[in-house]
Amino acid sequence: MSFSDIFKKSFLQGYTGADMSSSQIIFALIMTCIIAVYIFYVYRLLTRKTFYSKNFAISLVALAIITSAVILTIQSSIVVSLGMVGALSIVRFRTAIKEPMDLIFLFWSISIGIICGAGLAKIGIIASILLTIVLFVLDTIPVAKAPMILVVNAELAEGKSEEIVKAVAQYSKYNKVKSRNITGGQLDMVIEVKVSEDEKLVEAISTLKGVNAVSLLSHDGEVTF
């Protein structure tokens, strides 16, 4: 046997993982499933006020189990692990993640699969409980009230925009003109306002001379502090 053969044999033996018993494999998969179902219900509770996707929630459980199975397989041999890396490298996902919270749950699910597959279920349980507490505590923190959008259409006249802004200032401590548009003798104004008495504001603007239409809209965009 040549030196090259001895080196190759010792290299492969050095990176061959220890055999895992069937009970260890089953325990790792069961723990992964339990924690993944726990993630499923946490996602359901945290997204109760927004758009909830049942298919996405189910995929979190499946993703954790699949990841755990892959990690268990990789531990068996370096040859198998290199083959899986090559096979998984050709997979491309083109589904856009619209909500940052969904990205957190995806990474959480994958991490649980890796942790439990490596036989460290205690770390997965502790990390999941801690992360749940942090998420629910942060979710209870009140968010500043988002400003509203006031849209005014009026007949074009000298000093009309200043008159509208002055009337808005009587009911709103914060107001900012976003746009002024003049078309065919008509003035269109878009004003960002923070107001508590929205009905009185709309009524006050609508009673101004030359005002044709007033609309007050709420939005879910960025909050101005």
Task: Describe the protein's architecture and organization.
It is a single chain. This protein has 8 helices and 4 strands; from the N terminus they run H-H-H-H-H-H-E-H-E-E-H-E. It is α+β, with helices and mostly antiparallel strands and 225 residues long. It has 2 domains: 138 residues, no CATH class; 70 residues, Alpha-Beta Plaits. Strand 2 and strand 3 form a beta hairpin. Helix 2 packs antiparallel against helix 3, helix 3 packs parallel to helix 5 and helix 5 packs antiparallel against helix 6. The relative contact order is 0.11.
Helical run tally:
8
Can you tell me the residue ranges where pLDDT is under 50 for at least 5 consecutive residues?
Answer: none
Count the E strands. Answer: 4
Q: What is the topology, as strand order, of the major beta sheet?
A: 2-3-1-4
Beta-strand portion reads 15-25%
* Overall average pLDDT: 79
Tell the overall outline: elongated
Brief synopsis:
This protein is an alpha+beta fold and 225 residues long. Helices cover 56% and strands 16% of the residues. The N and C termini lie far apart (76 Å).
Task: Please outline the helices and strands.
Blueprint: H1 3-14, H2 22-46, H3 54-74, H4 78-88, H5 100-117, H6 121-140, E1 148-155, H7 160-169, E2 172-183, E3 186-195, H8 198-206, E4 211-217
Antiparallel strand pairs: 1-3, 1-4, 2-3
Helix pairs in contact: 2-3, 2-5, 2-6, 3-5, 5-6
Which key phrases capture this entry?
single chain; 225 residues; alpha+beta; Alpha-Beta Plaits; 2 domains; four-stranded antiparallel sheet; 8 helices; 56% helix; 16% strand; elongated
